[in-house]
Design brief:
By secondary structure, the protein is α/β, with parallel strands linked by helices. It contains twelve helices and nine strands. About 45% of the residues lie in helices and about 10% in strands. The strands form two sheets. A seven-stranded parallel sheet has the order 1-9-8-7-6-5-4. Strands 2-3 form a two-stranded antiparallel ribbon. The radius of gyration is 18 Å and the shape is globular.
């Protein structure tokens, strides 16, 4: 259902408000550069700082600007099952094609609780679900066995895997089936991830280098591994630099360099990247040939 380079879109702010025109321009640029789907309201979109109306509006803007050219996978996760259901309903009403739902965080549910969470979401909505597993942020980690269980739900179609464990790509492929959509959640691991059966990446770097990320994904999909490796080498310093300080600060700074005038404003508790981080981004953009 989903494949290729899928940016986890930043949310631009100006004087504390969502900069709607800038966001529309970002979506248009992403599509023109070859992105194959869009993720508004993810971690990189500072979703934790958006209120319910802003959450709905950002999804609505992405859907309207995409206008059916690429699917929109809306971030809908929460540590509360009821809140996730509400977000999925809002995303569906806004026209999203699917929901990206993180494994519930903070309250550390058991595997039974994680499974029950996704069962409840599938019962409450017909919107396709991409499970998001990112143990470094959530503490909770959906096991291969639990993922296999929820993958049998008709609306659970894939996973964004940011576990950092490449071996899980094969384990999940065997447990969930070859048709279960596996997307990397780590740009720096996307080459190995796709070699082991993944089909794309929900990417931070694609915000800044959408064409290169799209070309990289296309090369892996077509088995042009030498070309993919060369693109990996070209992009790797940028993958690292965009996490040299709290995300998405470095990504917004990088965007201001490749798209002059792009606002770098963040919402607390996120703050501007450090001088060292900015220097790392500058060097990485030069290495990639983007400035």
């Amino acid at each position: 259902m989903f494949f290729g380079s899928i940016p986890a879109l930043v949310t631009p702010f100006v004087r504390g408000r969502v900069a709607e025109d800038t966001f529309r321009e970002l979506v248009e640029w992403q599509i023109a550069e070859g992105s194959t789907a869009l993720v508004p309201c993810g971690t990189t979109g500072e979703v934790a700082t958006l209120n319910a109306e802003e959450h709905r509006r950002v999804i609505e803007l992405a859907v309207a600007q995409a206008h059916g050219r690429v699917p929109v996978i809306a971030g809908c996760g929460s540590y509360s099952t009821a809140a996730s259901i509400e977000r999925m309903a809002a995303a569906e009403a806004a026209g999203a094609d699917a929901a990206l739902v993180v494994v519930p965080y903070y309250n550390k549910p058991s595997q039974a609780g994680i499974a029950a969470h996704f069962h409840a979401l599938a019962e409450a909505s017909d919107l396709p679900i991409v499970v998001y597993n990112v143990p470094s942020r959530t503490v909770a980690d959906i096991s291969v066995e639990t993922l296999a269980e929820v993958s049998r739900l008709p609306t659970v179609v894939g996973i964004k895997d940011a576990s950092g464990n490449l071996a899980r790509v094969t384990a999940q492929r065997l447990a969930c089936g070859a048709e279960f959509c596996q997307l990397s959640g780590n740009d720096d691991m996307a080459l190995g991830f796709n070699a082991m059966g993944g089909v794309g990446c929900i990417s931070v770097t694609a915000n800044v280098a959408p064409k290169l990320c799209s070309q990289f994904q296309e090369a892996t999909r077509e088995g042009r591994w030498d070309e993919a490796l060369a693109l990996q080498d070209r992009l790797y310093p940028l993958h690292a630099a965009l996490f040299s300080d709290a995300s998405p600060g470095p990504a917004k700074y990088a965007l201001s360099k490749v798209r002059p005038g792009f606002p770098t404003e963040l919402r607390l508790p996120m703050t501007e990247p450090s001088e060292a981080s900015r220097k790392a981004v500058d060097a990485a953009l030069a290495h990639a040939g983007l400035v």
